[in-house]
Design goal:
single chain; alpha+beta; 4 strands; zinc-finger
């Protein structure tokens, strides 16, 4: 994780998530409210992708 910001009840997390192919890493940004992803932005182009979920799980592991 590169950056974590808290704005009211929304947490914005930015980080690098490993890709399965030779690309290396995807730059992913997510916004979390509670335990739900409310918005995500990933270099792969999908709205809510597996990379966003991996970043959320990594954040939840570290934040506990």
């Amino acid at each position: 994780m590169l950056k974590v910001e808290k704005l009211n009840d929304v947490i914005e997390v930015e980080g690098l998530v490993p890709a399965k192919c030779a690309v290396g890493y995807y730059d992913v940004r997510i916004k979390i409210r509670g335990f739900k992803i409310i918005e995500s932005n990933c270099q792969c182009g999908q709205p809510i992708c597996p990379h966003a979920v991996k970043l959320q799980l990594a954040y939840l592991r570290v934040s506990r």
